[in-house]
Structures are given as C-alpha cells and as structure tokens.
C-alpha cells in the first residue's frame, strides 16, 4: 500500500510539473511582439456598430459615407489598429457590424472611431467594450487579400 501511495504521489507531481512548464510550441519572441500575457491573451476594444442617429435617405450621401468607411477601415488595418471587421446579419437591435480594435483602452478606440466618415456623419454609432482575446488575432491580417477575389 505504501508503494501505491508513493507511485500516485509521483504521478501527480510529474503531471503538475509538466503542466507548469507550458506549451512546447511557445515562442517568447512572437508572444512579446504581439503583447501577449502568459496565457497568450491581451486586451482589445470590441466595437458594436449600430444604426446611427442621423440615417440618410440620400443614396449618394450614404454611398460616399460608406466608401469613406471602407477606406478608413483599410487605413486602420494597415496601421495595425483594426484587427477584425465585418457586418452583422439583420437583427432586432439595429446592430450593423463589429470591429475589434488593437488598442487597450476605450478612449484610444474612440479617437480612432472619430476618423470614420460613417460614424462622424451619424450614419453609424459605435458602442465600445474592453475585450480579452488571443494575442495572435492580428496574425491573420496578411491573409484577407489572398482570399478576397472582389473588392467592395
């Protein structure tokens, strides 16, 4: 019985030590360059885009504001500030889309959002929330051009 307890204790200890060693694929340089914490995560700002306070019936105005919206998203993505963006399907909350901004604080996100013509023009309204997600999220940014056949 004494040997059974000793064997179980050794197994638990070795399993615990292995779990504390971390991932064998861990790349400290990459983790540091992405701002990852020990769990491979970091803080972002999640933006919910909603129908704004000044919707327009003028198709030319709407078209110009959305063209500026798309150009601004491209600029923010190239600057490494916009990590994810996309429209939402129809819903009863008037939510239009999302952004995940590669910034830690809502104040910084709001400054970036002021550069969006559709938000500045009142066509869209933004709600911001701090969001904790994988620090590797921005790593997908080089790939959209490789899978996008048509431009908007």
What does it look like?
- The protein has 152 residues and is α+β, with helices and mostly antiparallel strands.
- Helices cover 41% and strands 23% of the residues.
- It has a four-stranded antiparallel beta sheet.
- The longest helix is centred in the first third of the chain and has 20 residues, at 2-21.
- The N and C termini lie far apart (72 Å).
- The relative contact order is 0.20.
Summarize the structure.
The chain has 152 residues and is an alpha+beta fold.
Short key terms for the protein model shown above:
alpha+beta; 152 residues; 4 strands; 4-stranded antiparallel β-sheet; 41% helix
Structural class: alpha+beta
Helicity, as a percent range: 40-55%
Shape designation: elongated
CA(first)-CA(last) distance = 72 Å
Q: What is the topology, as strand order, of the major beta sheet?
A: 2-3-1-4
Q: Name the average pLDDT.
A: 87
- SSE order, as H and E? HHEHEEHHEH
The number of helical elements comes to: 6
For the report, how would you describe the main beta sheet? 4 strands, antiparallel
- Strands, total number: 4
Beta-strand content: 15-25%
The gyration radius over C-alpha positions equals: 22 Å
Q: What are the low-pLDDT stretches, counting only 5+ consecutive residues below 50?
A: 4-19
